[in-house]
Amino acid sequence: MNAATTLPREVALLERLAGGFGRSSLQYNQRHESDAELIRLPGTTSVLALTTDAISEEIESGLYTDPYFIGWMTVLVNASDLAAVGAAPIGILLSQTLPSSMADRELEALQRGVRDACSACGLPVLGGDTNFGTRLHMGACAVGLIENGRPLTRRGATAADRLFASGPLGLGGAFAFARLIQPDTAPPAFQPASRLVEGQVVRRYATCCMDTSDGVLATLDELSRLNGVGFALHAVEEILHPAAFAAARAAGLPPWFMLAGPHGEFELLFTVPEQAVAAFRAEARGLGWEPQEIGAARPQPEISIWMNGCSARLDTRAIRDAYADAGGDARAYLARLLRLNETVTLCDSP
Amino acid sequence: MNAATTLPREVALLERLAGGFGRSSLQYNQRHESDAELIRLPGTTSVLALTTDAISEEIESGLYTDPYFIGWMTVLVNASDLAAVGAAPIGILLSQTLPSSMADRELEALQRGVRDACSACGLPVLGGDTNFGTRLHMGACAVGLIENGRPLTRRGATAADRLFASGPLGLGGAFAFARLIQPDTAPPAFQPASRLVEGQVVRRYATCCMDTSDGVLATLDELSRLNGVGFALHAVEEILHPAAFAAARAAGLPPWFMLAGPHGEFELLFTVPEQAVAAFRAEARGLGWEPQEIGAARPQPEISIWMNGCSARLDTRAIRDAYADAGGDARAYLARLLRLNETVTLCDSP
User: Fold this and answer.
1) pLDDT above 90 (res B78)
2) Is a pLDDT exceeding 60 seen at residue B4?
3) Which chain B residues contact residue A89 at CB under 8 A?
4) Which positions 288-347 of A are in contact with B (Cβ < 8 Å)?
5) Which of the residue ranges A131-140, B77-86, B153-162 would you say has the lowest mean pLDDT?
């Protein structure tokens, strides 16, 4: 089988785990086809958006250590999924497992992080479940509503669409590289904000949308797989957040590595048809928001990026699977990326 | 402070953890006042029911060991909360953390338990989140809908109401006693079914309802606290499941210990006004279901049970707090219950 017919590793695993479960006739989306689950509400024209996401591997791996930040991210990762379907926020349920050894000061910082993120996202805490155990585990379930109109999913892009990001990219990758590979280097400041307000505007113009929680290149690989299109990205230095670009340079790493990681920046990537771009930009400007055009869709299902004056093709499937292939070890993962960098095809098209 | 003004330990802790969080103006219930969170859906007359519950302490303590049963209970504990508010089931989101050491056979049994419970409860899997870590952690978030009429909460009982249970009681307690205190004894068969269908009938007749996930006496203590009423229970041998009564006798324990557990049987306890009892029973009979009348509400906020030909008063607040006071140690907990048994006031009223 070639890359086009093989499922990405995590999609294949989830298919194995969930394959036997029954589906709901109320569900609007198929599995993997949207960031939040979309449920038609009987007797109404509304669609409910539901998502659940936990901060667990990030704590175990040492990527997240600060209790305030862990609390903040518990809310943010769920808010980001609601943003990607264009839902208005309703609220959040928390599922916390607290170690009995946790100091009061840390517990207060954790709850403060949750509270501040809820308040920033407009997601009141509706309820939750608190357990005690040996390890900290933070889960949540966020709920949103789409009262009118079509929900936004990961499917619907055409090869003629233009590609946007809700903000500069690469900070999530730069943060993870510093934390896990260069622990003596201070990571760049990273505390993402939700794109819930922007997502509700995006929904009315975009043909597909997905958040970059798993990294930009994994997101583009998934959108390419689901839509049967490719993406040609603008120059890497234009797309990257200046701090991510500087971090790559300081570490002597190819800048595109900042887009490769499995830890993303929680921005939205979405496609807008040519004829809708002007109206979309005007409405975004009304919010004081400047979406970034980062490239365009292409009929050929390949991902390329402009580097060193060339269009360089990236094997996003291999890049996406590299972390799992490295057994989740950060240094083995970096070695794999460096090998993949040698195979990047440069200048196959002007 | 006396028991009437002191909060139960877990309520006080949750108040401390959640006290700073903002509330939603769409929320129908106050904190602790219903088993599932009740959210008015803007632009509709429907109320959404949401709950999240994890199987975490039960795994760490060794109470739950069988993967199929862990999968089953992950769904059931959430379904039970929807049942207690009388919601129709919509679906469930899973949040699994799987240890990489888990054998394929165990993983398959776990997923089969989830699948069978979902199918038995009519709760399709809408989506979820899968992580990998050192310990198994199973969380879920269940969603239900109340399309018309008043949601059912833990508040609304009057001192003239009659008290019902959806089925015989004490099996959850008997199971936990066998598992944690007498590991050489086979626990009674225990695989609770959801009361989702019954809950939708209960909602139209009952004044308050709560599931017994935390044990019967903790449930009655909470209903007493929230409603300012007491409960006089019928004879313990009438209320208990025969297998729970037999287990208590075989272990030489007072039978009421089977109602004391922090691990309950996932039945519903609810109050029905005198004038609604006949219609309620008739409709229940139509479902082939025989709700059990287990006692009556009383103006005095005390819990009593008929034992040895006497009405015995139980200090449910002390019983409820005993597990936390024992630091979660099963043998220290049993020692506390035995001391509390000596203080049970017998025959203070005929």
Assistant:
1) yes
2) no
3) none
4) 328
5) A131-140
Q: How far apart are CA B11 and CA B321, in angstroms?
A: 10
pLDDT in tens, B185-212: 889 999 999 999 999 999 999 999 999 9
CA distances from B339 to B325, B330, B333 (A): 13, 14, 10
**pLDDT at position B13 over 50:** yes
**CA dist list (Å): B173 to A114, B168, B216:** 35, 12, 9
pLDDT of the residue at B350: 46
Q: Rounded to two decimals, what is the model's pTM? A: 0.93
Q: Quick one: how many helices (H) and strands (E) in chain B?
A: 12, 12
Q: Do A39 and B119 touch (CB under 8 A)?
A: no
Residue A47, Cβ neighbours under 10 Å: how many? 23
Q: How far apart are CA A164 and CA B140, in angstroms?
A: 34
CA distance B109 to B122: 20
Distance between B36 CA and the closest CA of chain A, angstroms: 8
Of B31, B95, B126, the CB nearest to A39: B126
Which residues are paired to A303 by β-bridges?
Answer: A231, A314
pLDDT in the model for residue A348: 53
Contact check, Cβ <8 Å, A50/B94: no
Taking CA atoms, B243 is separated from A266, B73, B77, B180, B238, in Å, by 53, 20, 22, 17, 12
Q: pLDDT-derived band of residue B230, with 50, 70 and 90 as boundaries?
A: very high
Q: Which residues of B touch A51 (CB under 8 A)?
A: 93, 127
**A142 — contact with chain B (CB < 8 Å)?**
no
Quote the strand ranges of A44-134, DSSP E.
Answer: 47-55, 88-99, 125-133
**What residues does B296 pair with on adjacent strands?**
B162, B232
Rounded CA separation B294/B128 (Å): 39
Q: Does B43 touch chain A (CB under 8 A)?
A: yes
From the candidates B68, B129, B134, B211, which should be mutated to test the interface with A, based on the most A CB atoms within 10 A?
B129
Query: What domains appear along chain A, each with residue ranges and CATH number?
Result: 30-146 (3.30.1330.10), 162-342 (3.90.650.10)
With a cut of 80, say whether residue B63 has pLDDT above it. yes
Q: Which of B91, B128, B130 sits opposite A24 (nearest CB)?
A: B91
Instruction: Evaluate whether B68 touches B109 at the Cβ level (below 8 Å).
Output: yes
Exposed, middle or buried, A324 (CB in 10 Å: 0-12/13-18/19+)? Answer: middle
With cut-offs at 50, 70 and 90, classify the pLDDT of residue B348. low
B245 pLDDT above the threshold of 60? yes
SS (H, E, C) A201-256: HHCCCCCEEEECCCCHHHHHHHHHHHHCCEEEEEEHHHHECHHHHHHHHHHCCCHH
Q: Cβ–Cβ of B41/A42 closer than 8 Å?
A: no
Q: Which of A17, A33, A78 to mutate to test the interface with B (most CBs of B within 10 A)?
A: A17
Q: Is the pLDDT of residue A226 over 70?
A: yes
